[in-house]
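Replying to the earlier thread about multi-chain prediction with a worked example.

Input:
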Amino acid sequence: MLSVSNLHATVDDKEILKGLTLDVPAGEVHAIMGPNGAGKSTLSYVLTGRQGYEVTQGGATLDGEDLLALEANERAAKGVFLSFQYPLEIPGVPALTFIRTALNAQKKARGEPEVTAPEFLKLARAKAAELKIDFDMLKRALNVGFSGGEKKRMEIFQMAMLSPRFLILDETDSGLDIDALRIVADGVNALRSPDRAMLVITHYQRLLDYIKPDRVHVLASGRIVASGGPELALELEREGYDKYARAA
Amino acid sequence: MSVLSAIRTRDAAELPGKRDEAWRWTDLRGLIRQVPEPSAALDLGSLPAGPFDALADEVLVVANGQGAAHIGVEPGETKVVALRILSRGTGAHVARVSVDVEVSGRLTILESYEGEGGYLGQTGLLFSLAKDAAVERIVLAADDAEGVTVSQAEVDLAPGASFAQTLLTNGARRQRLETTVRHPGGHADLRLDGVYLLADKRHADMTTVVTHADVDGTTRQLTKGVVRDQARAVFQGKIVVAEGADRTDARMGHHALILSDRAEVDAKPELEIYADDVSCAHGNTVGALDEDALFYARQRGMPEAEARALLTEAFIGEVIDRIEHEGARDVVRAWAAERLRV
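Result:
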């Protein structure tokens, strides 16, 4: 589904990604682990089209379509969703208004009919209940005054509402206690399906106990330096990133 | 020297200009070489409905300076009045409106400026509020891009009265909305809010002067604006706390978003305090939309223009939410949304 080949990217003229190659087939969950500064967040921003991240070489496709040629919102309409490491606060915009605007913008871009207010509310109530989110919280300005854990849960709620095909989770476990982690993981696992794929970016192995990856990749100094099965995550937890950081 | 006397005497030298400190960012003398002929009387036979007609008990029309000019509210009476100030054509005109609200009277005044043409108009309003009277004034200034207008309101409050104002404008060729308040303290309460949404080469100037003359008065002020293209906004907010006007509580905020390199915002918040025991504060910010928030909205699927509109609507929404009259709040919210989605 996602195919990244020899990707080089710079931020402020500094090269962060240095020839990253990665394939995530439909139906699979891949984890990317790596030390701080390896380029994990840069990868998620390059794939989602944030300004200021310049691709100098290589490419990325989603189902064969050139992802890098599309605007950020066009990529979202194709089904790319990023769960932010630090979700933004949006003062003055109720969460429900924000998500409905986003959902209808995506539907419009895909040539689908917009969702009506009653349909939307029904869906929102159901998904909020699954994620144990108080419905009244969705009437408040998005993420304003929310705790770190609430913001992460709100990311997963948005994911459930927008029903994307390719999911990128950037450090979704940070700021979550063990109960919240379980709820979030259940929400993510509910979206696993043969026609979806996920990229789970994490510093620690803990999240992968709940969201079981098919493949684990080690990202160091802007490249994938090792790949393996779930056992690789356990090895990293035991031995740390040192040998990969040195090898890179 | 004033706009009023310039129009009455047809002497352009009477117009205020950039050499006058209070008008230095809204130069009329440099703009108008010759005061136009007096505006012709208007035939009101085929007048389209105004923005607030459906919400009001009474609709008053002042057209090219002519028409009903007095609003009175009896003691204890409550009413909602729509006041429509119309300008048509390329002439000059002045209008006078007086508003008297007697003891414990309550008035909601829904004022609209509706213009077509390259006119020069001045409107003078005098608000007089007796003890415990309450007025909410909501102004929708929709002037022509070629029009030049000056609206000058003077507000006289008695102790215990409350005056709450929200001005909304999309500017004009040159436009000034001025409010001068004599605040007697004595638990009188004042709210002066504003929203400007300017595009193209439009100009709007919101100027307020509040003088707290005695103890125990409150003033809350929040103005927010968005400027794009080559538009220019001016905010001048002055609060004077006279000697002895202790326990005055005054807060002023002005926050602007500049959405293009060639747009301009000139702001001058001023606090002049001659009393010892007061609580006064002002905040003033001018900046661009938060790029991180913009990316967040776009990552969720909103095209750039829609994301910008949503975030700017939210930005000014804080001011609109303070409007008490629900129907008027909905009207101005829709008006603002339409101007932000271009």
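Chain A touches chain B through 31 residues (CB under 8 Å).

Feel free to reuse this layout for your own posts.
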